[in-house]
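Dissemination and training. As part of the outreach component of the grant, students in the summer workshop were shown how a complex can be specified as a set of sequence lines and then modelled as a single object. The example used during the hands-on session is reproduced here so that future cohorts can follow it. Participants entered these lines:
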Amino acid sequence: MVSFIAGLLDATVQAATVLLLAGMGELISERAGVLNLGVEGMMLVGALGGFITTVLTGSHWLGFGVGILLGMVLALVHAFLCITLKSNQVISGVMLTLLGTGLTTFFGSGWVEESIDGFPQMTLPFVGQYLVDIPVIGEAFFRSTATDYLALGLLVVVWYFLYHSNLGLEMIAVGEDPEMADTMGVSVFRLRYLAVLIGGGFAGAAGAHLSLAFSQLWVPGMTAGRGWIAVALVIFAQWRPRRMLVGAYLFGLLDALRIRSQSISLTVGPDAPLAGVINPIVEFLMNPQIMGTYPYLATILVLAYAVIRTKSDQLAVPSALLQSYSRETD
Amino acid sequence: MSEHTTLRMEGILKEFPGVVANDHIDLSVERGEIHGLLGENGAGKSTLMKVLYGLYSQDDGDIYLDGERLDLESPQDAIDAGIGMVHQHFMLIPRLTVAENVVLGEREPATAFRSDAEGSWLPATVRNNSLVQSLAGQFSLGLDVPEQRIQDLADQYGFDIDVSAKIWELDVGQQQRVEILKALYRDVDLLILDEPTAVLTPTEAERLFDSLERLTDEGLSIIFITHKLTEVDAIVDRVTVLREGQNVGTAAVSSVSRADLAEMMVGREVLFDIDREAVDLGDPVLRARGVKATDNRDIEALSGIDLTVRQGEIVGIAGVSGNGQKELAEVMAGIRDVTAGELLVNGEDITGAKPKTFVDSGVSFVPEDRLQYGCAEDLSVMHNATMKDFRDGRFGDRPFLDYGELREYAETLVEEFDVRGVSDVTETNAGDLSGGNLQKLILAREIYRDPDLLIANQPTRGVDVGAIEFIRETLLEQRKAGTGIILLSEDLDEIFDLSDRILVVYEGEFVYETTPAEADRERIGLEMTGGDGDDETVASPPQSGVTQEGES
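and obtained this result:
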């Protein structure tokens, strides 16, 4: 039982890192008012680019960097379409996902057989060896890849950036009311580009983490919907970095459970009372396909709760999300 | 051009598709003067000022500030040149605090990195390094020092503002003051004010005028956009009148009469006297007893209101903004829940009913915030005009709607209420209309359904003279038709001109009742600010335990 839980937690941390990285990028982009539904595509491009680079150079850090860069390149397309040309953010984002999927399936077909030396599991310097000895959670949380630690560190950076820096304040302002920000001398154009590019970098990093640390191989379509879960995660977190930490681990746990659902049996014995009613329900709920919907169900619940509980002027969604801005058309 | 001239705009041309908003306008402002910019809505005042603030780029013409030609590509250029602007529609982010709104774009670094900080752990040489300054300005944010400065400014000009409050917690009047603080914080030399007093009470406006005069004494120049001729008399030194995108003339205020100015603005003679015929009062349409309600922060805003409105009666409610007027209007219109008391409309108890029940009972509502609550900006004039009545069977058999009928109805409203700027009722969106015309459309929708009770909250705020005249006449006509009207206005003249009865609201209670005939303005002013008068004419004597929380 203990080993099962330890294994589950380990998988949770690994899955959470992917969501955390991609989710933070999406959060920054959305706080500046640009929805980017291309997370899945940017992740795939980052995953493949990082993988190929690592195969060719042997350096997983270089691969990670290339993954980030490629995510930003794809995001630049989105930024150009949505900010400069003021086209529809939803359409452009979906297009990005389809583009990323198609490109990586084509260019990645020759790399499926390759293997790499990805990010090794490591402990933190100095205190790590003691932390690993903590029962149950020690191995899961304190023997991880460098990217796991990096994601957590970046979360603090993102939180600080948004709430305690001028650029963060300006980014939030641009996402709330671009016209107001403009009258205060804040460049809407520049800040939105910056936010979308940061978002792309994070998505690329999430993809590179997936291929270089999580699974250490390349499979076409390996993100398997995690980009969409990252989009849901931003809503679940109500556009707040701290809640994103909770959400990422919750969604990560659901993902880890889903993968292991075959090995868990919660059905009651055939002789137990009501077994005929309970067992089909449990089997339904533990079905991997059904479990795959849990993050979305949780997001819907959070959305509903937020709408019911808070007053309209306090809703967390950035007020100018999806709105393009140009000065001379009021 | 005299040597005192600070701003010179020459031959400003600004065209929008199909419209010449500014047709070669010249404007010159002298240092230390308050220059009035007068004109009806759509006359091109705001466009001209947006050109000056770098929001629009002119198609032709030049701008000179202190003799230097300005090339304004963005508001940042205008701010750098020392130009500040207080916009007509609030430029504030509700979710952020007062301080965050004010410092936005100023790049205030964390306190330790401030070059003027005392006792910082960082040595001055490091702090004064330009690279350090730039990085700290981007990647840190210190609000302590700015908050203190904003508070000092607020105190200096008598603004009652909590700098750490979120904007959405403030009422409209307080939000306006934050707008002014934003400009003051930037040490501007030239301040553009787009109808700054629209939301202030007379007393507050007086105080603002004093502040503006103090600012001009220090050498600041002010461009004051207004529709109110009384304000031009009160504080403006020289005035420029715009009509249909052209400069009709600039004059020293002392040399022109009000009637002249009005005629210049409108292009015809304007009647200032309102003819108020006697109307017999009928049965009560509204009876409110002991009504209590809370504001958006769940703090009690109405602490036990008794109010009866009869057919053919206009009850004017005066008060300093933020004393429960907004909540009062919303409670009577059924869109805010009461926490105690009861509401009877036409004798029927509809306390706690849905807004639709209020609508169906004959209650009409003209909200204070036209764009946010009065209309659906992105829907057509037709949709907005029929929004309250499309269900009632006139417009086709449910569930189908007869668009021909809807269009016809909307066209009737547009014509009868003289709503201008509508090319096609299905094509023009409500949000495209100017303030005055949008207000006329909303009023048309609310009145054409022949309501028993009309609640009008600030019906003439920020609309031009011509529209004000029209709206006031419409209200009086409606009174004659037997509608009971609650008029909430921060314009005391309006309350005096229109009301049969005047109630003064202070901290969520009626503290004084009078009629225009026997009213004493000073007394009203005193009651509005909570001053102690004697009790002889007080409608309901102030109870003990008056909540102090209504204002923060």
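The mean pLDDT of chain A is 89. Students were then asked to discuss how this feature might be tested experimentally.
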